[in-house]
């Protein structure tokens, strides 16, 4: 397929198949191409609001530390290639077409004895991203869920290093349930055995769900405002404030202090407007800090953790 043909093929999936939630289809297609998702080091991010910003911030921090970072986002604004990036560079048109062709061949069942599998729009793009990140030798893949978590296509990942769940609200109730506890259960579906889990959710009913899942999976839960905290930065004197630490988030008038699980930092620049972004930045910093649980340490000398 050419690039134009590949985009048309992907977009037709959305037109004709819509949204279908289960994991067996994408698992089988990824198995046919070698299970790339099992060879990646993943930070997996779900939630109602803020998951896109948090995903971007985690990837920026890791890239600023010198790592090669795959980033999977949705939706896109202008170009479908926005969804699949490595260190801020969109997947090329040639690579997009090649991966779409690969997924098409392996889902069409063209090999002898293979059944045809109809992937949805989001499943196709997720499969392409996971294969691409492996082919690009990324150090980390930072994945944003599309909708929910438990049955989201990104949840084919078996062993994420850190799971991040932003705030929880009533959304997509036709698919996720019409109560906070039901929606929290769907989001908590990304939590895997032994993973570290960070969240900015505060509702008692939501946190109860997360605690139960973490106990079941023997995972550790870290809560914004409890195990780690973030504060708007306020200079202690009237003198001009010092240039803040970058953390991959520089060039903004907004600054924050972070009291973390392992370390604390002051006067951090945040290149996103709005007070609500402070929480997203706190989640991102905590997620990167908790990589130390997997013996991955980010040196402060890099300008990040």
| Shape designation | globular
Number of strands: 11
Q: Strand content of the residues, in percent? A: 15-25%
The first-level CATH class is given as Alpha Beta
From the 3D structure, determine the CATH topology.
UDP-N-acetylmuramoyl-L-alanine:D-glutamate ligase
CATH superfamily: Mur-like, catalytic domain
User: Can you tell me the number of structural domains?
Assistant: 1
The termini sit apart by 43 Å
Structural features, described:
The chain is of the alpha/beta class and 305 residues long. It has a single domain (3-302), classed as UDP-N-acetylmuramoyl-L-alanine:D-glutamate ligase (3-Layer(aba) Sandwich), CATH 3.40.1190. It has 9 helices and 11 strands. The strands form 2 sheets. An 8-stranded mixed beta sheet has the order 4-3-2-5-1-6-7-8, sandwiched between helices. The protein has a 3-stranded antiparallel beta sheet with strand order 9-10-11, with helices on one face. The longest helix has 16 residues, at 93-108. It starts with a helix and ends in a 16-residue tail after the last helix.
Quick structural overview:
The chain has about 300 residues and is α/β, with parallel strands linked by helices. The chain contains 9 helices and 11 strands. The strands form 2 sheets. An 8-stranded mixed beta sheet has the order 4-3-2-5-1-6-7-8, with helices on both faces.
Quick tags:
305 residues; three-stranded antiparallel β-sheet; disordered C terminus
Secondary-structure blueprint:
Elements: H1 3-17, H2 24-32, E1 42-46, H3 51-64, E2 69-72, E3 84-86, E4 89-90, H4 93-108, H5 121-135, E5 140-144, E6 162-165, H6 173-176, H7 180-187, E7 196-199, H8 204-217, E8 220-223, E9 229-232, E10 254-259, E11 264-270, H9 276-289
Parallel strand pairs: 1-5, 1-6, 2-5, 6-7, 7-8
Antiparallel strand pairs: 2-3, 3-4, 9-10, 10-11
């Amino acid at each position: 397929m050419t690039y134009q043909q590949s985009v048309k093929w992907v977009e037709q999936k959305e037109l004709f198949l819509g949204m279908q939630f289960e994991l067996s289809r994408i698992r089988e297609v990824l198995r046919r191409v070698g299970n790339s998702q099992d060879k990646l080091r993943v930070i997996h991010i779900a939630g109602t609001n803020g998951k896109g910003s948090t995903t971007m911030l985690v990837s920026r921090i890791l890239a600023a530390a010198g790592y090669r970072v795959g980033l999977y986002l949705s939706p896109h604004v202008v170009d479908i290639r926005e969804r699949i990036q490595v260190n801020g560079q969109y997947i090329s048109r040639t690579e997009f077409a090649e991966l779409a062709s690969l997924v098409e061949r392996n889902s069409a069942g063209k090999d002898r004895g293979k059944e045809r599998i109809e992937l949805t729009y989001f499943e196709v793009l997720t499969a392409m991203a996971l294969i691409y990140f492996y082919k690009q030798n990324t150090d980390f893949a930072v994945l944003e869920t599309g909708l929910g978590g438990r049955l989201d296509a990104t949840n084919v990942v078996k062993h994420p290093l850190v799971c991040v769940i932003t705030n929880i609200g009533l959304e997509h109730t036709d698919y996720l349930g019409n109560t906070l506890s039901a929606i929290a259960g769907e989001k908590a579906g990304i939590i895997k055995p032994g993973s570290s889990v960070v969240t900015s959710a505060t509702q008692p009913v939501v946190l109860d769900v997360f605690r139960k899942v973490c106990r079941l999976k023997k995972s550790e839960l870290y809560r914004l405002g409890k195990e780690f905290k973030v504060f708007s930065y306020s200079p202690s004197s009237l003198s001009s404030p010092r240039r803040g630490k970058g953390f991959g988030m520089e060039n903004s008038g907004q600054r924050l202090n972070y009291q973390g699980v392992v370390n604390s930092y002051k006067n951090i620049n945040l290149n996103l407007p709005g007070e609500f972004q402070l929480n997203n930045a706190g989640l991102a910093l905590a997620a990167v800090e908790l990589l130390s649980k997997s013996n991955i340490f980010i040196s402060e000398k890099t300008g990040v953790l």
